[in-house]
């Protein structure tokens, strides 16, 4: 008998399972109805566990017992009860991420999902996942996988709180093996920024000016209102921040002077609004992208940049001008000065780094 045949005989098919290629499938007959579906695993032991979960689910449904603790039921309840305290944008992101688990976890009971299931999902996502946002399709980034796992962890924690689980398997999964790779970018120059501002509508140009000269985050600038601007003290109170904690910043700093862009804004309500809707820009980054594409048609050597890159360019101007890195960290709203150092010190020369360090030490003694 050939060696390959003897090897195949050693792998005994679990009950109600069969192989299709290298993937195990479930085949269950209940009340005369045949149920078939992929178990999405090449491991016989894992297939045996998953087919049992599917059988339990089908049997509960057949005799009229509500399948309360299934994956779909958990997602529905989490969306209704577990996301009430998060920002709308975060809620949208979580729900978008959690849909990426439906194919693999959709037939499982929530209590049966293990660290091994998560590892199998990560492997499948890396090897076969493609982003639908691009025409040709791109590999799913580690950053996207990490965000999806964060959403899954929130869902599992919620399930623990309502008694559907006793542990969170995401916390047991070693996420350090999924490292985010961020290629360093060249921040835009003031000349490049001014090119875009000249080609942009007035509202877009105004917000670009504020972003360039203050280092605000996009949402902070797009929703900035006149009532938040203190002309007497030359300060801006930011309320729609990433952490939902208010932050007050000066508008004249080593990184720039926002005076002309604040003066040009509306005297009441939002400083700058969309010309199409007369409301806050809903897709400001897309608007800026359209302007840059028009510039590229006339100048193929133009260096495109993202809106968030304006924040990085501001921070580097601050530091290269000799500004204090601790004050910059608070100005940007970073959780600690280490975040600021990791993001920007690599863009400075050794002499500039030493000057920043000296300024920080002198500032801490004041």
From TrEMBL:
Span of domain Core-binding (CB): 69-160
Keyword Ribosomal protein on entry: no
Keywords: DNA integration, DNA recombination, DNA-binding
GO BP terms: DNA integration; DNA recombination
A GO molecular function held by the record: DNA binding
Origin superkingdom: Bacteria
Pfam families noted in UniProt: Phage_integrase
InterPro entries: CB, DNA_brk_join_enz, Integrase-like_cat_sf, Integrase_catalytic, Integrase_recombinase_N, Tyrosine_recombinase_XerCD
Domain Tyr recombinase: 182-358
Family affiliation: Belongs to the 'phage' integrase family.
Protein name: Integrase
